Amino acid sequence: MKMTLVVAVALAALAACGRSDGRISDGKPGRKILFYRSPMDPGQTSPVPAKDSMGMDFVPVYADEKTSADAEPGSFRVGEGRLQLIGVTGEPARSADLIRSIRAVGRIAYDPELYRTQEEYIAALAAARQAEGSSLAQTSPRARSLLASSRLRLRLQGLTDAQIDALGVIGKPDMGLLLSSGKGGILWLYAEIYESDLPLVRVGQAVEATTRSLPGEAFRGVIASIDPVLNPKTRTARARIRVTDPRGLLRPDMYLDADIRVDLGRRLTVPRDAVVDTGTRQVVFILRGGGVVVARPVRLGESSDDRVEVASGLSEGDEVVTSGNFLIDSESNLKAALAGMGMDRDAGVKP
Description:
Structural class: alpha+beta
Order of helices and strands: HEEEEHEEHHHEEEEEEEEEEHEE
Largest sheet: 6 strands, antiparallel, barrel
């Protein structure tokens, strides 16, 4: 009986605010409609009545609801009191030096295969030089072919042409591929770089490596080469890093965490927390003063640990919401949905 009474009251309320054509009236005839706005995405507007992808009617925006402060598309009024109540804070978008930290798992190399390939190259190089003075016509081309093959194998294992040339000058393979040479020795650290990070990784970049087994110790190195092919199972490419072992603590096959810090230069950035990701787009909320908020789609670029580049959609100095943005998102959606039903959030059904 109680449920029947509640339903009857609800139907009566809706009938009171309805019109003969089935649309919900705002109760204020003669109000000028400026445009229509999506109830679920304030950034979507239309000059004529429309529906969104879910079939919901766009909400009319009236002239007496608009001011010069919120005249731009995607704006809506939350109210200064409500912004304070839900703990909204903001920060201006600003240009900053963006440092990207690329982290990768690596291990101290024990690489007899590369060691043998280096031996083969040194032997092939010596044979090619000797064949240049041979009286046998077929000797020199064969020696050059063997040299080219061994050089190609080194390239496929990640060595650059410059490193291969240097190997020929030194004339002996790198013992660091097999064992540690003690204090102050130099070892190879093999780090797996994900495909998405590869465009930012370069030969010559500095690396800092740490391991849980040696707390407080940091090992510094430089990227010497990057494998030219991806591992199809892990979608990574191996970076070969020359690391210094000042105290002789590292051993072959030890695992380390490599940190490659990449300077991306000066970019327009906002805090990561300022971005609301809907799954299909990224949105930030801009504070315009007087309790007015603007929902602005943005295109993001590179990111650091705590900041993200805004490639388009913002200007330097725009004050973006950094905390409470999800509550603002809920607030705007709820307000628009209630408005589309002819209801006000605070007053209930309009008379």
